[in-house]
Model the fold of this input.
Amino acid sequence: MAHEITADFEKVYDGGPTIRAAFHMPADRPHVTVLFGPSGSGKTTILRCLAGLDRPQAGRISFAGALWFDADQGIMMPPQRRGIGYLFQDYALFPHLTVTQNIGYALAALSVRARATRVNEMITLLKLEGLEDRRPSQVAGGQQQRVALARVLAPHPRLLLLDEPLSALDVPTREELRRELRGLLRSQPSPVMCVTHDSVEALTLADEVAVVAGGRIVQVGPPDEVFSRPVNAQVAAIVGVETVVAARAGERTDGLVALEVGSARLWAIDPAEQATNFFVSIRAEDVTVAVGALPSSSARNHLAGRITEVRPAGPVSRVVLECGFTLIALVTRQAAKDLGLRPGALVTATVKASTIHLIPR
Amino acid sequence: MSWEPIILTLRLAGLTAAILVVVGVPIAYWLTYSRWRWKFLVEAVVALPLVLPPTVLGFYVLVAVSPRSPLGQMYQTLTGHSLAFTFEGLLFASVLYSLPFAVQPFTSAFGAVDPKLVEASWTLGVSRLKTFFRVTLPLSAAGVVTGVVLSFAHTLGEFGVVLMVGGNIPGVTRTVSIDIYDEVQALNYSAAAQTALVLLLFSFVILSVVYALNRRVWAVWPMR
Done:
């Protein structure tokens, strides 16, 4: 347990919700845990309790054997001594300081030269050259985010806490930074806990996803498992009914890329980046199920499979089929009845290449 | 027109404003961040000089600084002379009288600083005290300047408290407002008019500075 962060605490708001979190994560390597859930579910509170900005009423938090919080012993280590890096949702850059001064803010104990060296490393790492003497208000949103990251990483934090790191950005900037953020989080030595309500962000960044709902952590696991196999209806509603499965890119031709998914092969639109590892995400309503001979079709993916489960949900049925990987389809109950869809039935699932969403890893 | 009361008044106002920075900033910090349930009592005490007639405040100060009171006795043992009817006694009264004019702008300026910035500083390992000097105070500069200027200006024009506490000793406690009053009593209207004009112009300039700062005409740095 010496190299773990263990937390089990309860934070009660006066006349408000109770947030209860129990989890553990590695403390000595760049492991990214994503707290995923709708807004108001208590994700940020969990982060703030870890940071020492909020004080839980009960429980304990320890980091690599050191006690950060213990309600019974009355221990509450102040945020200053926890050695964390906390990235605020709207960055909280100091408006009266330049980019350089913001990045060097936590380095007051270093000599002038050592501080300048570290600040320059950060400026290079986050591609902020040329903005050194600007104030936060004079740089664009994406650059503010980079400054905030640089400021957080500069003092070598032992734990990184990111609160909705990309939510304040416009869509193109967000997509660009999302790719970069993963690489950045891998390249530094500390564990990361990241709060988000964006599933693409969760799938891009996470080694492990913890789904938060109603102030509780309701499911923890690898991202593809959490997104594909929610433990209950509540989690399913939060993550959305989707197939999420790991894939490796193979042959690339005509703007398409072949993906090895389990024992099956899928064609998808080749994304701009040359990554080889992806999460494949397929919305259940984009999957068509057919029985018998197939007419010629514009769809690129026809997967032979066996139905393992049919579960009615209102006017539609959720059909789970095994076709080299587990694929989920939504069909109307009428169609399910007409086609005789039941567990064991052999069917062909059709998925258009353009509806397959690739998330680079 | 005599310059002596004007110089004395400026000295009194300047020292009052300086002491109020030293005393007012910690009070304002405490008022901003304390979660003590009886905090409102302290807020009320700080605001009292706004509503009390200066003569009432002056009366209590006079009693407090008299050689028979504990405070007056302590001062006499420390310095060898009495506090009543001295410049120091007047300064003490002025500080109390102008306290809300410094503390209230300070408090609202500190309160307007985004708490996230303060928390960001804490998570970056910077102590509460250093955070105050590196984040809260620079971002409250306009409010602090307003408080200093207002308390300075307020001291310039005080009359009742000076009358009660200071007496009317030329060069020691005879301030501009007392001087004008005396000239008028002596039917010496032209001298009163000159001194009054100086005070009027001075006050106008100072208040213009305050309002310019509050409109961020002279903002120390661009705001977000």
User: Anything to note?
Assistant: The two ends of chain B are 49 Å apart (CA to CA). Chain B touches chain A through 21 residues (CB under 8 Å).
